[in-house]
User: Fold Sulfhydrogenase 1 subunit delta from Thermococcus camini.
Amino acid sequence: MEGKVRIGFYALTSCYGCQLQLAMMDELLQLLPHAEIVCWFMVERDSYEDEPVDIAFIEGSVSTEEEVELVKKIRENAKIVVAVGSCAVHGGVQSWEKDKSLEELWKTVYGDGKVKFEPKMAEPVENYIKVDYRIYGCPPEKRDFLYALGTFLVGSWPEDIDYPVCVECRLKGHPCILIEKGEPCLGPITRAGCDARCPGFGVACIGCRGAIGYDVAWFDSLARTFKEKGISKEEILQRMKMFNAHNPKLEEMVEKIFQGVEE
Ligand code: SF4
Ligand code: SF4
Ligand code: SF4
Assistant:
């Protein structure tokens, strides 16, 4: 890209954790001579959502009617749109129960509380506009953001990770939570890139980086192990839905894992 790269960072409904993660990156200071931050309310008071940008980073899920309009406007104004974090890429934990009605969920959380905006069920950005690249995780790794941004800046395109968390977990030498403790770790079917952070702390993966490609998991051995440990299809499906409820292939994938091992 020639001249200063114009960057926008836009927030939809979220915990703002992704932005905070990026705003705390010292490496961003090195970028300032080469980039102009056109919109990023967390770091720049003089931010403009209507301006054209080269790269638009979007955090959060589309959860209000106003945000539907905002993402369309961002798309019109941006050459490259990047969805950042599980909320933007997958709808986030807030869309976990996407099959329930908004009224039912609203009542559970807010009772008769009213708001000034028009709420809707949380959805991934991609349900409304074309997304050019995704940065996974809740929150994403700093290196994923730097890799994507650096690659765009030299006029190239970042690659996607297409292997599961288990690969990084084995390389790190962590004890296997699934095999040794019999807990339903989702590492075998979740996209790597976090260096198996949770298993590193002795905690089973809950799939925050999203399911890997449909045909990557080793379904046969995985199914045998789940069955051996007494972990059911329903349990895996429920756990995967926490961050992957909008994945249209999810049920088919879990079904395939358990094919041939059911009683
Ligand atoms: S992906 Fe996670 S860290 Fe990022 S905004 Fe959503 S909930 Fe927060
Ligand atoms: S199942 Fe979980 S703990 Fe076991 S290797 Fe895979 S990521 Fe690591
Ligand atoms: S181990 Fe799983 S839940 Fe933990 S950070 Fe990695 S992908 Fe997310």
